[in-house]
Design brief:
The protein is mainly alpha-helical and 474 residues long. It folds into 2 domains: 181 residues, no CATH class; 214 residues, Rossmann fold (3-Layer(aba) Sandwich), CATH 3.40.50. 53% of the residues lie in helices and 6% in strands. It has 17 helices and 4 strands. Helix 1 runs antiparallel to helix 2 and helix 6 packs parallel to helix 7. It is elongated. The N terminus is likely disordered.
Length: 474
């Protein structure tokens, strides 16, 4: 029989839950205060008016909770009905505030993600696990609240089999979800991996394996002036050149190129390959970054081109999860679930790679088959190579696409880009046949992330080395 929990116990002291609430709100306030707004810093030179207003509201909430706790504490003899729901919710708030504060110690931007509805999306391992405790406490609170709500609606002493079975089923489902959530969060912390989407596992992989220099590139620091006897090669690109998904940077195209060219060379004549590749960039971004990296005086510039670099013309499609089109879009239930639940996140990334999802997008027009779009894009590429010529650097375009081994339409667009670039005087080193005889699945990081793996990088580097030696043997 479902009965409300009315028996007084150690949790019936009214001041204690409010003290827990006050502590949780205080920790939340600390996290918000540690954040510095990205652009708008009109309030005290640190915060935007909206963020400052949020700090004021949370501070007032702390004052209210503290007042309720002190007032209840003064009434020493007061006793109330025990409420597991209230105490569990208070503990959930406390643990959540603690997880946010811990995460903000290494990443102060955590305080700015709360308004983006990233409530349980920390990337600090301890906070990731504490957030699961928050979820478990919320489930306990909701279960107890439902239990008492059902009991209040039933006649006294009369059991309800339907209500009891419904509650048991709900608790069983919630428990299963909690177990899966815990397992996936533990896996993300213990074995992070790239997944083709900014999941917890992927962002933890980045934290573990990616180190950036002062310019924001995955490379060591370089002096502006080349050392005596050193010839510099500048490699520009996006995530392919960056080596996303590759743990050891020595397995990237840039590092394999340097190793091969320096093999057998004396100490008096060496090649230095400067990696200036950054994920989520396209041709216009490369043009904007070029003057700063040309200051390193490279003799050669290699643009490692990927077939989403055209998106500065076409604009990437909007996603309700990763880049909502409006402020209201941030409140979309799917986005909220994916951002705050490891289970929903992993279901989502697998749906993105499924045949059904790809079939929905198969009808999207290929921008490389649209002459107007392609010519506008080629004009930007031409500008990139003009800047290299002005810096007296030999430049080559290297289109890198693993999908040429999958279907003829990818070969067609590869050749259209190559012929269009060559018609504008851009010299191209083709990788069209670099991957012949290899299955696409053997060339990518994993089944969720289509970035080229170490084998694909090695095959591409082999062709680039041969072309480099053939043209610049001297």
């Amino acid at each position: 029989m479902i009965e409300p929990r009315d028996t007084p116990g150690p949790l019936t002291r009214p001041w204690l839950p409010w003290a827990i609430v006050a502590a949780g709100v205080l920790l939340l306030d600390v996290t918000l205060v540690r954040y510095t707004s990205f652009a708008d810093r009109r309030v005290l030179g640190r915060w935007s008016p909206a963020h400052a207003g949020l700090i004021v509201i949370v501070t007032l909430a702390f004052g209210v909770a503290l007042y309720r706790s002190l007032r209840a504490r003064a009434q020493a003899g007061a006793r109330t009905r025990g409420s597991v729901a209230f105490v569990s919710a208070a503990l959930a708030l406390l643990v959540w505030g603690l997880s946010l504060t811990i995460a903000s110690l290494s990443d102060p931007d955590v305080g700015g993600r709360i308004v983006d509805m990233r409530l349980l999306a920390s990337l600090t391992p301890v906070s990731i696990l504490l957030e699961w405790v928050v979820l478990a406490l919320v489930v306990v609170a909701v279960t107890d609240w439902l239990r008492n709500a059902i009991a209040r609606r039933l006649p006294p002493g009369r059991p309800s089999t339907i209500a009891r079975n419904a509650l048991v089923s709900l608790v069983s489902l919630a428990s299963t979800v909690l177990v899966l959530e815990a397992a996936l969060r533990l896996m993300a912390v213990a074995a992070p991996q790239p997944q083709g989407f900014p999941t917890r596992a992927q962002m933890l992989w980045v934290q573990r394996h990616v180190r950036l220099n002062s310019l924001g590139y995955r490379d060591v620091e370089h002096a502006l002036e080349p050392p005596r006897g050193r010839t510099r090669i500048l490699l520009v690109g996006d995530s392919f050149g960056h080596g996303f998904g590759i743990n050891d940077v020595r397995e990237r195209v840039s590092d394999r190129l340097a190793e091969a060219l320096n093999q057998g060379q004396g100490a008096e004549r060496r090649f230095d390959v400067i990696n200036a590749a950054r994920p989520d960039t396209h041709t216009v971004d490369h043009i904007a970054a070029l003057p700063k990296v040309l200051a390193y005086k490279p003799a050669y510039v290699l643009l490692l081109y990927v077939f989403n670099d055209i998106e500065h013309v076409t604009r990437p499609p909007r996603s309700v999860v990763s880049n909502p089109s409006s402020l209201l879009g941030r409140l979309h239930p799917l986005r909220f679930l994916v951002l705050n639940s490891a289970l929903a996140e992993q279901v989502f990334v697998r749906l993105r790679r499924s045949t059904f999802w790809n079939q929905r997008r198969a009808g999207d027009p290929d921008p490389y088959l649209d002459d107007r779009v392609l010519q506008e894009h080629l004009a930007s590429l031409e500008r990139f190579f003009d800047l290299c010529r002005e810096a007296r650097a030999e430049a080559r375009l290297i289109p890198f696409d693993l999908r040429v081994v999958q279907a003829p339409e990818f070969v067609t667009r590869y050749r259209r880009l190559q012929s269009g670039a060559e018609a504008r005087g851009i010299k191209v080193w083709s990788l069209e046949h670099a991957f012949d005889g290899h299955a696409h699945s053997a060339l990518v990081v994993n089944h969720l992330d289509p970035h080229p793996n170490a084998r694909a990088n090695a095959l591409a580097a082999r062709v680039i080395v041969d072309r480099f030696r053939a043209e610049f043997a001297r």
